[in-house]
Amino acid sequence: MISTVLRTAQNALEVARFGGLDIGEDGSPFEVRQERRVHRLRHYFPGGDGPVVLLVPPLMVSAEVYDISARVSAVGVLHELGVDPWVVDFGAPEREPGGLERTVSDHVLAVDEAIDRVRELTGRDVHLAGYSQGGMFCYQVAAYRRSEGIASVVTFGSPADTSVGLPFGVPGWVAGEAGRIPLGGFAVPGWVTRTGFQLLSPVKSVRSRVDFILRLHDRERLALRERQRRFLEREGWVSWPGPALAEFVRQFIAHNRMLTGGFVIGDRLVTLADISCPVLTFVGEVDEIASPEMVRGIRRAAPRAEVYEAALRAGHFGLVVGGQAVAQTWPAVAGWVRWREDGAELPDVVVPAGAEAPVVPGEHGLQLVVGLGAEAVRSASRVVQGSRRLAHQATQNLPRLARLERIGSETRMSLGLLLDERDPEDVFFLYKGRAYTQAAAKARIDAVVRGLIHIGVRQGDPVGVLMETRPTALALVAALSRLGAVAVLLRPDGDVGREVELGGVERIIADPENVARAVAAGAEVFLLGGGGGEHEGVVDMERIDPDEVEVPGWFRPNPGLAGDLAFVLFTGEGEHLKASRITNRRWALSAFGTASSADLSPADTVYSLTPLQHPSALMMSLGGAAVGGARLALASAYDPETFWDEARRYGATVASYTWTSLRDLVNAPPHPGERHHPVRLFIGSGMPRGLWRRVEERFAPARVLEFYASTEGEAILVNLGGKKPGALGRPLPGSAEVRLARYDLERGRLSEGPDGLAVECGPDEIGMLVARVRPGHAGRALRGLFAPGDAWMATGDLFRRDADGDFWLAGREAELIRTADGVVPPGPVRDALGELPAVDAVAVYGVPAGEREQKVAAAISLRDELKPIDLTEALLRVEPALRPALVRVVDEVPVAASGRPRTAPLRDGSVPAVAEYERDQGGAYR
Predict the structure, then answer these.
(1) Which of 581, 604, 611 is nearest to 487 (CA)?
(2) pLDDT at 532
């Protein structure tokens, strides 16, 4: 008894003085084969020539996690089984020069460099393996390299989807407030991380310490686990650099970009969808730090990869450290490598992801009980998360709508003002695989502002912008807003000369591709964007040194008021060419409306598929992103073949459309990137009802968010619920009050009641949509329309409102067809034919039927066989007087660049019909 007490006291004193027992055990032999600022590359057991495994540790744990002791050494087991182990060692950041300033990108690029070095030294591709966050690094590097030089990726408890919970014990409030907390200035000491992890498994931590104390008398028994105990209790934990923590929380916790894609390494955009090598992920069934749902997210995040999994009844550390790891995990890794390299038999524990995986039992009975209880906790947690999400939407959108309500004509409001409210470190926009921060964008915008001042532009001046979609165009539009000038967005494929005239433009700023068109328009021309060569009389603004420009006394940044003219946009062509003048308030209505309706946040990326000079790009995509703090991804051109690759790379959660622009995408063959895609919303206007249904069916769970915005007045409608495809919904809160006024189709004017006032339409009656004008409006308006002293603006668009209060577009005033039986709007026929599953696209128009009259014709293209009886039954839902006399089947319904159907080629017969069906006297089509 006395000897036991003495041994206990002696061992306790040694632990107190030195932190542990000196057991005389050294680590496995290794050589450092590369040393850089961020990492050292260790080669264990030099001289091995087997297949290579490169092991990557997480940020908060030292590289010794793979070689804790001879008894539980990962590198030792791999070496014994014929695998050549290498380890990336990030060191202890708190003891490395500049270590606490490291970012996630620094670590990913370090692993990338280590792969190149290992391949150079061995002549082999590497099997890249990582534990916990180290596995996340492996995914990121594999995506960054597009799997080049990587034979496979192996991860252990590495999350790929944080939408189902928060990994590594990160508190929910940290993720929710990631955009507001300056995490970059704080490094997390190793002891804090250690304590946090221990608190996640308090019973196990207490049990381990009690067991150690009770066995202090038995040095030989303690020696077996001493290095493991010292590693977990103290020596294995290192500091987490503040910038890396901030980037990790922002990109991968708050914004979940491991799953959605679009995370930034350096300035490059990366998506796990680019991983094409095989993946093996080890899942801890009782892992409370990275739950199975988070880890299995790799199936959705990497649709091109063959994903396998090995499920173990283990906790987070038990996957890689301890007896179970030595007996099961590392032999399975070696077996996987041999299977990939030599065609050996696949280990039993490894199965294709999604198959019924055998769960290998572990040593931790207590963890099983804890795990069962935790599953109940997680289920409850998901309910709480749903409630929090609803609460978050309310707290996010109510201030936006309140701010919109407060915008009067004298309120300062502009694009430039909203951009200045963004965090400088946030990514503002994405273009051609690169990310640009708000700080970088602002520097460019300010330089362009000085260039504009140099060439004589002042507040209120209209300036033509003739550019393709590119960063320079975005910077110029923002600079004009910042200066308070008017951006007249000329269309490169439009009638530039006529648009210059309608926009009152005296100066045009063009990119190199459009400078010749600008010169031909006759205005003073300036070049911005570089690389355009020499043009006589054209000033290259890139040669203006911003630092040499003296800022005049009149200049104030973002002076624009809500009532000021901000943009001029153009729609239509030929005789239908029209200039739309957009005030800052009108732009803000669309911007705030889009951000609120789409619930945009910094976690979103809005993928703008339309040119910047299109209303949907300027007012919805750019505007919504500016208000919502989301990232804006600019497409230089829309190509359905590359859409999903780009959407994945950008991490697009919201994609814009116009009219039928998504038709080619929904008709395209299945694409690998389409599986488990990140897009949650398609937002835009003009989508036909049938296409709407097909988009939601094919790309579920994404849904369509359809808007209507009048070119005249401030009417904005939005179909928020999405339960009525084809409907334009109801007025957006904060936008103008709207009504349907009875409209005399024959006379082309509003109908009046006995009292001389307009008459409001009843349910399902077609009328003109009118929007109430705000007090103080001095422009053209219909005054005394429904009551003395009121003022309204006619939108020029005909609608009907159903019994539920939802609005449906019947047609635009210019689209009305004058037949012998009356005036016919095209909407009802268009909707009825568009509902047919065999119909791909529809256009409704008038064809001559006499000197002054027309008859209604419809052109359809097909995606399947169509029978005449199908036409007859579909059109029975349309009032007899509105039904078409002729239905023509064509190979393709012509559309404009925006996807809007073009009826002129159909009217003049330049599009041949492959079949025609005429309506007989009985109403059937033959």
Answers:
(1) 581
(2) 60
